[in-house]
User: Fold this.
Amino acid sequence: MDFTELFSDVNTMWVLIGAALVFFMQAGFAMVETGFTRAKNAGNIIMKNLMDFSIGTPLFWIVGFGIMFGSASNFFGGIDLFTRGDYSAILPEGVTFFSYFIFQTVFCATAATIVSGSMAERTKFSAYCCYSAIISLIIYPVSGHWIWGGGWLSQLGFHDFAGSTAVHMLGGVCAFIGAKMLGPRIGKYDKKGNSKAIPGHSITLGALGCFILWFCWFGFNGGSTVSMTNGSAALAGKVFFNTNLAAATATVTVMILTWCLYKKPDVSMTLNGSLAGLVAITAGCDVVNPWAAAIIGIIAGLAVVGAIEFIDKKLKIDDPVGACGVHLVNGALGTILTGVFCSNASLEAMGMTRIQFFGVQLLGVVSTIIWGAIAITITFTIIKKTIGLRVTPEEEIQGLDLPEHGLVSAYADFMPAIPQIDADSDYTPVLGDVPVDEAIPVQLKTDKKVYAPGDVKMTKVEMLIKQERFEALKNALMAIGITGMTVTHVQGCGAQKGKPEYYRGVMQEVTLLPKVQVEVVICKVPVKTVIDTAKKVLYTGHIGDGKIFVYDVENVIKVRTGEEGFDALQDVE
Assistant:
């Protein structure tokens, strides 16, 4: 076999594996954004993440790739409809055209999907489709041409290995402008402008998305070597190592920082910290040493917490998932820090001094921010003046799943469907030993109260208790003769309004704590016995032990037998 052909196949395979991993990042973004927002918008979030890739793919093929990799000028690659030109000059060694094409396509889709999270829960779906298309059609390809397509920044020596600026910062700029123009979600800020926490509905989904993104980032950064020959395999190993190290140090940094600031390590902010470290190291993962990657991760961790709090509390910009702090701030920061921590050997290979390289990195960041801000502002303004950018207040409060997609709930198990029986059908119920007319004789035709036969005293005792005390209470109640109870998992707070906690740096005014509600109806067992037993089991002397409510019960009817009052409460012998 020709070894040249073998090496070409290896390089092409490596690029295709990288492309597949970068594509799977769409799933990670979808999970992060869904988990960090409310359940009533989950379907809408998923639909947006599906469509930005599906819309961007054909548009990048029709126009975007030509703009990005054409050779018309240093600022604009050119128009090449359906990408029919000759691009052999820009292909990496041993990589086929279509392999490189799909690799670049998935990067384009990543830039577009970043915007979704910051504008979540109040953006029209039609508007989202429009601006996502514009990002893939022209905004990303133009700056991509400057950086990766042989444009003016690449000629100056600007270094952005896998896209801290080209992908993440550009997407973050669009996200920031969009969130600003869109305005905050209803209820996010009070009349005095103080930020109010709106927790996401599933930290589990958010964490799953973070792990998916971390895994796929090895393809994002490692695949950007676009080769596994001529020493590139060793470079890929270094890129993998630096990527993982920066993410880990950023994660630990955010955990410690939020532990100090909020008295407890903040889960969602720590997840953002992992992503911040990944974004920051993306620009220079190939030219910095491991110790520098660790420092970049630490700086990214510090920066993401400060940025998210500053954007939320000072700028009053509502970013539900922290996309601006993660992608905009750390995309820019990571690119600039590449100029600071680039190894001496890499600088020598570039033929630049550290000051020169730092200046070029700063210039690239600033120019990309200006381009992205101008282009997306024009885009959002046109959309706002035509089809509109934001949904109505009624739709926002209801949640976007139903008005935008006709989806009652993205979580069907929490809204069980009740089977309907057609009155004209031949449905025959299964009957027990007692005729149904006798088993269910209850018909209230007057305003008179219905009392239990024999004036038997019946009482309902309702207890709100800590979750961890339920088993002990259940066993104690059964021991004194209680044979039936209703148990419900609830949330609530007492006079202390729960225990104050922080969510992403914002104190939640009223914390609804998880509780268990236990209800029993008694007549044979003395009420005092039930209360004394419950108090003995539940008491710890600390706030949150619970409360006991006592009600009079007028009547009880057992549906199966028709028994009422005392008899209805007795267990079957």
User: Anything to note?
Assistant: The two ends are 85 Å apart (CA to CA).
